[in-house]
Each structure stands twice: as C-alpha cells, then as structure tokens.
UniProtKB/TrEMBL annotation, chains A, B:
Lineage per the UniProt record: Bacteria, Pseudomonadati, Bacteroidota, Flavobacteriia, Flavobacteriales
Organism this protein belongs to: Flavobacterium granuli
Any one Gene Ontology molecular-function term assigned to this protein's record: phosphorelay response regulator activity
SMART domains: REC (SM00448), Trans_reg_C (SM00862)
InterPro entries: CheY-like_superfamily, OmpR/PhoB-type_DNA-bd, Sig_transdc_resp-reg_receiver, WalR-like, WH-like_DNA-bd_sf
DNA-binding as UniProt keyword: yes
Domain OmpR/PhoB-type: 122-220
Highest taxon, organism lineage: Bacteria
A biological-process GO annotation: regulation of DNA-templated transcription
An annotated GO cellular component: protein-DNA complex
This protein's name: DNA-binding response OmpR family regulator
Coiled-coil segments on the chain, per record: none
Positions of the Response regulatory domain: 2-116
Amino acid sequence: MHILIVEDELGIVQFLQQGLEEEGYQISTAADGAQGYELSQNEPFDLILLDWMLPKMTGIEVCKAIREKDKITPIIFLTAKDTVQETIEGLKAGANDYIKKPFSFEELVERIKIHFRNQQQDEILTLGSIEINLAQYLVLVNEEEVSLTHREFELLCYLVKNKGKVCTRNQIIEDVWDIHFEYDTGVIDVFMNAIRKKLNLKIEQDYIKTVRGVGYIAND
Amino acid sequence: MHILIVEDELGIVQFLQQGLEEEGYQISTAADGAQGYELSQNEPFDLILLDWMLPKMTGIEVCKAIREKDKITPIIFLTAKDTVQETIEGLKAGANDYIKKPFSFEELVERIKIHFRNQQQDEILTLGSIEINLAQYLVLVNEEEVSLTHREFELLCYLVKNKGKVCTRNQIIEDVWDIHFEYDTGVIDVFMNAIRKKLNLKIEQDYIKTVRGVGYIAND
DNA sequence: TTTATTCTTAAGCTAAAATTAAGAATATAA
DNA sequence: TTATATTCTTAATTTTAGCTTAAGAATAAA
C-alpha cells in the first residue's frame, strides 16, 4: 500500500514517514502543494495525507484538483486548522476524513486502515516470489504474469496451500484429480513439468522440490 | 438513503432525526443496542449512527456483531467517549468514523455524505472503451451505441461489476439467472456469444476472456 | 554399471466452449 | 383480445484447448 504525504514541515514529514513505514506502508512525500498534485497525477497512490497550509497550492486546492479526475483515492486532511467551518470546507472539497493536529498517531493509523479494509479482501497465496491470486486465477512470478491451465493452477495451489509438507502422489491424485483408486500413470509428472517450465524459476528459486519415491514439496 | 440511529437519549434522537430528515434522509431509530442490532439484520440500511453507551448491548458490541456478516454498511460512532483509546477501540471494532460529542451537526452531515459519495457515482460502469449507463440501460462501445437485450445487459453488468475477478458459471447462474440448483445447459455460452458479437470488439480489445473450466473474467 | 525413478516430448483423445438454428416463452402492437 | 415481433432456451454441430497416455531420455540411487 502506497501513501503520499503532502506536508511542508520537515519534522512532521519525518515523524509520519518513519511511523507509517514501520506499519508496512510504502511512502512518498511532497513538500509543497504543486509537487503533491504533480506526484498524484504521475503514479497511482492508495491514499493521500494532505496538510492545509502549503506553499504554492493550498491543501484545499490540491484536494479539489485531484478530485476533478479521481473520485476514489482516499484523501485525509491532517491539519492545525481546527474550526468546524474549516473541517466542513475540507470535507466538501472531497476529502474522506479530517484529522486535527495535534493528533494521536495510533488514531491516524486506524483511520488509514479504514480505507484499506474494503480493498484487501482478495485472497492471495505466496510461495517465495510467486504470487497466486485466487479470485483472478492469476499467477505472478517476479511480478510477471504467467498463464496456467486450470489443472496446472489447481496443482500449484495445492502444493502452496500445503507449503512445508510433502504431498504424496496418492494425495495429489485424490485431492487435485479427485480420483479415489490406485492410479499410476505419469499425469502428475507431466503437469509438474509443465508448471515448472511455465514458472521458469531460477536455480536458487527452488521452491518446488521433488521428494524422490514419495512426491513433491513446496517451500519458500 | 436510509439511516439507522441507535441512541438512547431521546433528546439527541429527536434532534438527529429532525435534522437528517430535513436533509432528505429516511430515518429509523432504536433506543437500545439489542433493538439496534435486530433492526440492522432485518432490513438493509445505507448507514448506521451508533452511540457507545447503550442499554442491553453497548455500541461496540453492536458494531462487532454487525461486522461479523456485513463488512460494508458504513457505521459512524457518535459518542461522548472522547479519549484516544476509546476512539481507537471504536474504529478497531469496524466503525468507519468516530465523532465526539458535542459535535457540529453540519460536520456530521458532511461526514455522512462522504460515505454516500462513492455509492452514488456508479451510475456509469466502464470496461476499457465500453461504457455502461445503468440508469439508461445503455451501452456504448467506442462511443457507438450498442443495443443489448435485458439478459445480455445484466450479464455484461455482472462481469463488469466483478471486474478483475473470475466469475464461475455457477456464480453467474446464481446471480444473473437467479437459479439456485445445479444447472448446466449452454445458456451462458449462448449469451456470451451474443454479447461478444454485438460488442464487436477488436482483437486487442479482449476485455472479456473465458477461463476454461471455470467461467469468464472481465478486465480493461 | 545396473536399476529405478523422474523428466520430457509428442500424438491422440476428451471434454469444454463457440456457434448455429429452431422452437418456446414473453412482450409489444394492432 | 389476437397478431406480430422480440427475446430466451434448448439442442445439435463444430471447433479448440488441454488432458492423458506412452515411450524414450535424463537423472538419481543401489
């Protein structure tokens, strides 16, 4: 999650940046309104923290400018302007929240999380640098999309879901192929081969190992 | 827009109800936590205003209970509990905002509006260069109007609303056809075929892909 | 080295999806 | 209401993706 901080007081910027990075967010900063608006147009942010009093463009102006095109990205005002009228002006400009200085950092974090709650509900499995998006039936290897067939996808998911445990050929045939009797063709091998070929992992990325005589195991 | 007020102090309830009705909202009220939770389960509200100190169930308990099933409906705490710790507790329970008494009615209205902003704007859906106007049942492809039948329109909307996620055949039959048992004729295929034919997209505009063995996915 | 296991490849087969057409159901107009 | 047009559904046909098999190559174990 990538957050843009638009604030001119260096002390506050550093305080926010450090705290939010510790929370696991990626942070970009802008020291004046114009630069903040500029940045917001060049790359997509997941949330924007905005001061009111800024050089070149005020926070209100930045907020309105962003909202002309983008109605979605959450914007939170973070400002010493604490009258009701100012709060209302900020919210009317299109902000999603308005927090008055001095504020509690912990409360800020909770208020930030509110906006991410609704977005993060897609289930994602990972195996090393492999990312599996279950909702999209999508596999990313080192950020690159790899297209697997349905069976390949299911087999990979099965191994990843059982990360750290050896999956025997029998278990795989049972659970992935749904065959409940002795079955010993080379199907699994063929599919493992196809998956490995498509994932095209480097030698040091040996996330999927074969356990000779038994089956396979995934591990990051 | 229908708002539920859960608050035991009659004076505040009347004040809120009158003010919000003047703003054009439909209001329901509950005088204790248990009744508030009960109401929230029986009919869908667009937003819930929640006091903290309530008879029978506290606001926190109501909030958590609602959030067990429903992660979406905005919940705003409106309470005299004004410490940082309490605010955080409220937000962590799943609330979307936390307003401290005494509050400005005007600010409350603005904060309520924030949550409706996002809902009301999806009158128009887009998928690449396809534009779907829900209010007019109108579809534009590269600015050109395309006339779809009702079912075709619904199916297309469903895919677009779930943009980025694979829609399985079962989900489609459930949600678009409203059939709740195993049903495996070729209807979906026929309609997908009709939609694709009518949209008449170029090869590079492959916004609607079939996911073999699973279903379909829309993506711009 | 011998033997067993796993990997790789390619060809045939199977099942899923696309297409088409025709009849049933529903909506619209006369 | 009846007549007409539109839309929906079913079913048969064609096409295509991908699953399976089997056989030889490569690799690991004995």
